[in-house]
## 1
Amino acid sequence: MVNVAGRTAGPRQPGSLLRRPGRPTVIRVAVVVVLLLFTVVALPQLIGLYYVDYLTQVAVYAMVALGLGVLVGRVGLMSLGQVAVLSVGAWSAARLLFGTSQPFPLVLVEAGLITMVLGTVLLLPALRMRGLYLALITLMLASAVYIVLLTLNFPNGGAGFSGYNGNQIHIPPIRRPSIANSDPAYFRYAVLVAVVMFALVAIHIRTRPGRAWAAIRQSEPAALAAGINTTLYKLWAVALASFVTGVAGGVLAGAVHYLYSDDFPAYTSITLLAVVLMGGAYSLWGAIVAALLMQLLPALLNNWGVSNDWLTILFGIGVVFTLTTAPRGIADQFPKDMARLGGLLLRQVRRRRPVPASASPSASASASASPSASGSVSPSASASSASSAARAAPTAASAGEGEAP
């Protein structure tokens, strides 16, 4: 192999392509691992079952917000139909869990694939649109899916394609995996599934699809001029978001045991978009913040006796405040604000610290201003002292002769 200078370079070592991670990356990974271990091992033991159920919902909606973040934050596709995609995934998983005896992880994958195909086919005609027009079309599609589910109903163990039997008195619950029958165990299971989905999206972001999505988001004409197949990568983003949301629907089916069409109204997609914008559509951490705002905050307000009507007001104020002061969301702005606050506190501590007298600026300034104090004498001063000494020498000599015996 010949390099730029014309000299022959040696063979590249296999390990030369692997760069050693820097200190910030190692610290970031360590923090994530510690938080994950605390969430999975210690957190279910510290809280009651009431909050365990809601934290399971947080894990589910973190995956839903993650899929919406891929569309909104990475590609720039404004979608208002993500809750409808979630309902399709939940319906598919419930039908498979009632109709087959397949393992739960396999059912999650199948529900994700079914949702991916349906979501891609439904959004394929609308991919030429952007902004408000795409948002309106996805909202209408979400309303259509909601009406279909009202007619079809969710499976409850019946026969036929729909799996619904309205004459049943005792409806069996949707089964969970055998290793996660209890609520704390299923919470841990949902967290691990969410970690896998986050890792899948992170791999896409750091590889070629992520770079193509960033180019499309910045300027679709420029991406076309650069040779990027924008239609292909848009479909790729829609398929990935639909798959992640479909898996989340399967986890939701096992979490609640019973599914109803009224649980997935179309207007919930607007709330989901609002919390994703507040949390941060451009960050993976923003999906977790959005899920906490959408599921844990209502649980806290309900536990404190606050009406849920205040939640809509809080979300409205939060969206306006976030878009004006932190356009990239809480997940991006909060660390910056904490770093600035830490720097401010550190400067205040340093200012209040007493300064030693020997190192005071006034002493050093006076020492530099008076060179005679430091032992240095100017040439004119030395010359004048020498002449005065010469004039005083004869006088001293005559005085000495007069005093001699």
## 2
Amino acid sequence: MHLIGKGRKCARITHSRMTATLFYTTNAAMLVLSLLTAWGIFFHGRCFNGDLKRLRQFVAAVFTVFALQRLSLFSIVRPEGIEVYASQPLVLLDITFIILVMGGTALMSRPRHYRNFTLWVLLLLIPAIFLVVNILMQTSGFYRPLFHADELLDFRRSAPIVFYGRMMFVGALLVFWAIAAGMLAEAYIHDRHERANRPLSDDVERHNGEVRAVLGWAALFVGCLIPMITTSLIIHITYNVILIVALVMTVYAYWRLVCYLRARDNGRLAPVLIVRRVPLLLDLEQGGTTPWGIRMDRNPFFSGNPMLDDVAQALGVRSTDVSEYVASLKTNLVAWISDQRLRHCAGELAHSNRKIIEIALSCGYNDLPTFTRAFKRQFGLAPSEYRKKEQKSDSRLELDPTAN
């Protein structure tokens, strides 16, 4: 029995060492990736100005401070156990969150926040003071780590200064987290309202991606609080893996953003957008709001007299982009729109049970004979014949899935 107990103890020690090693490894990986992301993004894409320049600056600041927060987490593993409510990591995480919020509000049409020096001081002064005090206490040996939440209550009797100091520290940080979260929520609501009233054509998707990234990382930083109140290194390791995956996805999204902007500046983006957006636009037969944020009272593709400016506005590109694209196809605007409209009608005939007259009227034709003549001229079959042929082909494929 003595040997069995000794073996179990050795197994627990080995498991504990392996867990600590895995924690150190994942945390170090996150630290290095944060620094690489911060300064890689800062120096990459320097040829772009405007929103991207501001984005690069805030990404560098956010992930540099976050790397310092990851560095401070190495000290939570002590011989006595795993420290909870560690002061230094909490303060650095608070500073990271505040910088992210200030940068996020700037991207969400609230630049007055990040330009307000007084607001920066109000939000960062107290956390900075806490950080300095914590460093001084650690270097002087007066810092008292907590290894369980109940220990804080014990300090109320044995060391009231430590107890009330920690309570003031946690309370102040929670207040700053709440203020920052409220600013971010207000900026997001304001941004959605502004974008709904004044859509940004081809920049809408890019802007929405940036907003989603800011909100996503804000949620991840809030989630970082969960491992810091537990004594389980497994939770720390799991969250480190989540952060690493999120960071890799962020770098990939930024790389796509730079490619997008370069393609736009080189004039290579518009044809891609037109090809991708035309089918989505044709699905909005009665008008409405496009996925890229353009509101239409009527779809210009189904208008009797389509205008170039209306088509370009609906697609979220410039009029010259549409003209150049149509010219590259060796056709004219009216012929191209007619071709796209008839292809949409053909798809509706083949894959829906809508009446032919309903499809014709919804797609801008005045009557069934006009639609029939136009359709037969392009496809060589009347709409009813085309539907029968396509449905017969589909039924044959269903009976023989291996048919080509």
## 3
Amino acid sequence: MSKDSTTSIDPHHKPYMTNLRDVPKVGGLKAKDGWVNMQVQFLIDQKSADSDKLLVGWTVLPPGAQHDRHRHFNCDEFWIVVKGHGVMYTDDGGERPSGEGDVVFTPRGHWHGFKNTSGEDVVLVWGWSGAGSLEAAGYESIEGGRSH
């Protein structure tokens, strides 16, 4: 690599590392906006890591918890089911079984969501490409209307 190739590195942006135990749960997420009994942590985002185009999250859904059908206008979303199983909501209004090891990608503007239908916690690792905050994601819930 030549010396010239480093000139595009922003000296203000540094590598970032955290640990689940050090990241607070996101407050203010309301059931009326589709966040039903969820425990959400933003592991990498605009606020913590100065990341304006990527957000990585960790969510625990206790039995019966769900993220209602919703969409994002400004970012794509992926999730990986790390533990447990339930149903994912599909773009056409249906439901599809989803469990441990499933990797799901939803392009921006498409409806999606997840409900824990089991008797154990579901753990999801998920992320947005194109937004570093909920406000930047362009979030809209079927149940609660547009919230960001």
